[in-house]
Amino acid sequence: MIKTIRIIWRKIRNDKALSFLKFAGLVLAFVVTIPLICNIRYQTSFDRFHEGADRIYNVYIDEVYHGTADIYGECPLAMGAYLKDLYPEVESMVRTKNKSDVIISKDDETFFTEDVIWTDPSFIDVFSLEILSGNKHSFLHQKNTIYISKSLSDKLFADKDPIGRMIKAEDKEYIVSGVFKDYPRNSFQQFSALASLEGYVRGFDNYSWESYEYLTYVKLKSTGMDVDFERKAQTVVSDYLVPWLKTHYNLDYVVDDKNSMSLKLLPVSDIHLRGSYISSFEKESQVSVVYISFIIVVVILLIAYFNLLGFAFSKGKKHHFQINIKRFLGSPKSEIIKAFIAENLFYTLVAFMVSCSIFFIGWEFDLPLLSELSNVPASNYLIPVFGLLLFAGIIAGISGIVLGWYFNRNTAKLKESGNGSYSTFWLNRAMLITQLAASIVLFISISVIYKQMKYISEFDLGIDTQNVVVINQAYKIRNQFDAFKNELKKSPFIQEVSRSNSIPFSGINTGSFIPGDAPDQTPYPFPYFQTDISFQDIFKYEMKEGRWFSEDLASEADAIVMNEAAVQKMGFTEPLGKEFYNLAKTKKLKVIGVVKDFNFQSLHHKIQPLVLVFLNKDNYYRNIVIKGNTADRENFLAEISEAWEKVLGNEYMNYSFLEDRITLLYEKEAKAKQSIFLFSLVAILISCFGLLGTVLNISNEKTKEIGIRKVNGAKVYEILAMLNNDFVKWIVIAFVIATPVAYFAMNKWLENFAYKTNLSWWIFALAGVLALGIALLTVSWQSWKAATRNPVEALRYE
């Protein structure tokens, strides 16, 4: 072993430049692939820390109604109650009401915006939760109790004991009954407080089918029961939910080819990776990140080890002489293969150790690229990191076998013929073409992602979303809204103020509307906004026909406005004057206008039917929406804060810009763009090292030819053309291979969007030109060096 290391070290000292390129390529590869493999481990670890995680499932309803498919992530309270009562397979059940940006305060002086979950006491029976202080056995048994995280406890009470202290959440008073360890970041559930669901829901009824508002989870008694349990649990829908709908709302709900309703289970450990098809978990789909990361790991490692092969071929003649000497001294073929394997493993191990050092330095300094990974202990990554080393070692070993086999085989041929060309070896060319094709695919991918993100940012949504501030504390100012609005309208920076129960791109409600003249009297589930008359002045959507709401008419309380998609869904040719009932049939609604379709969801979705309902002063509403006349956010917010303080004093104001909310809808795509751009640069840089190895190979083999051509009067540019000619041909072949691969991959990625850019021909052409330019720039300096070499030296060298 020591002898082998000495030989390898001697080779490194004798050819420092080439050895540096080998190390640099592998270090770059590992610096990228180590964080990627850790990210794969992180993304796939979500919610696997729960005790019995493989037995925990989210319950959702998959419904097809009038031919329209819909999935309800939230269920009525009764769904979970009946599942627990009727099926012995269920060990425990819990329901949750999740809310973000909840104002938590102490003594009406200290305010924090936190994520809160209102839940059943059985939360700790289903999910793992470490209680640091307080009674675990009486968890949330009282309606006015709340448990808070250690970090929130420190913010609210510093080092004091919080147990028994009073805090407010959404203006309701709670007694702190316990403190739990901050929840792991590798969970789709993120919260700083857990409060009693029974105390939150007005008129709490454990067997109520009224509201589809609660995420429901079951923990089965053993693994492998989910398929059978899902089949059995359909009786809850057929024997309880459907009869309840018929009884309470006089609905003739018939299950046929146009109408169906079924209960489904989704493993909790799959929510983060594959849960986006359920609206409640739309932001959780990360499985594409895992697939892309894995592909990049494999591609970058293959490119790096292709370079090792290419560098070995570039020293083909030198290896030929060394092998001849070893053969003369009696070394068997196996020893020559082992020598190549040992050299590749040496480079792999040293480069891996250097890369690990760089990675952990970045970890210690909490670099932004590694900040998400640091949410879990570093020990969690030991197995995948060593798995990466094992995978790299296997590739290194295979590379060594290929090199040993090739040089053993070709040495005999060269001994007989006296000449040979390592650059024409099919594997050498295949590796180079693969590297170039991978670079072109990455070029195309980043271009398409950039084009789609630009398309999204410039897409005409059909409404005005600029300079719009949303305040999420309507309950604070409900009785003083008019005073607040009057104060705001005094400012030249404020254009309009409105209030609503829902806003575009966030918190959209769904209601049931029964056509007044429909023979079957079955309801249509439509998203709806409950708004006042100023809503249109803020978002500036267009009326297609009819009119908008008017506060002067008392009949507006029974008026609705529909969008074009809703009119088309209902099949109306003359929608004005059409009548609907609410689900309870206690109120008749009349269509007074139709608005042109506008996007109120992310561009991942097509425009859905929408109903706009008039908001009376006495109606409940969640949001205050303020339109500004300026892009100067600082002055805009200062005016809002001043009016808020005049009306409410020192109350905390929780606000957000609508544009920022929209940006968050495409956070995954933005991260993908940054990551692929970075990895593309690294892959291209590693490929450039490989190109250098190939041009060294060619220039060494053609030393005599170059010398003879120069003696016979060949110009430098002619020598350059000769040396670079093959690269152009290989890039063309790589482009032909890469184009369909990139087209297929990007076309599949764009399927995530209902509104998407085109795969323009110029993107593919630009990628080919860039690959050609980078390749020629990389090899030209070495080609120039060979072309300008003194022909006498070249011939003497030969």
Report on the architecture of this protein.
This protein is of the alpha+beta class and 798 residues long. The protein contains 25 helices and 23 strands. The strands form three sheets. Strands 4-5-10-7-9-8 form a six-stranded mixed beta barrel. A six-stranded mixed beta barrel has the order 15-16-21-18-20-19. The chain has a four-stranded antiparallel β-sheet with strand order 14-22-13-23. Strand 1 (56-65) and strand 2 form a beta hairpin. It is elongated, with a radius of gyration of 34 Å. Mean pLDDT is 82; it is low at 414-423.
Question: How is the secondary structure organized here?
Answer:
Layout: H1 2-14, H2 16-44, E1 56-65, E2 68-72, E3 74-75, H3 77-86, E4 90-106, E5 110-119, H4 123-126, E6 131-134, E7 145-149, H5 150-157, E8 166-169, E9 172-180, E10 193-196, H6 197-200, E11 214-220, H7 226-232, H8 234-249, E12 260-267, H9 268-274, H10 287-314, H11 316-328, H12 333-364, H13 382-417, H14 426-458, E13 468-471, H15 474-477, H16 481-489, E14 494-500, E15 509-515, E16 524-531, H17 535-539, E17 543-546, E18 559-563, H18 564-570, E19 579-582, E20 588-595, E21 611-614, E22 623-628, H19 633-648, E23 655-657, H20 658-664, H21 667-701, H22 703-711, H23 716-750, H24 761-787, H25 791-797
Parallel strand pairs: 5-10, 7-9, 16-21, 18-20
Antiparallel strand pairs: 1-2, 1-11, 1-12, 3-11, 4-5, 4-8, 4-11, 6-9, 7-10, 8-9, 13-22, 13-23, 14-22, 15-16, 15-19, 17-20, 18-21, 19-20
Helix pairs in contact: 1-2, 2-10, 2-12, 2-21, 10-13, 10-14, 10-21, 11-13, 12-13, 14-21, 14-23, 14-24, 16-19, 21-24, 22-25, 23-24
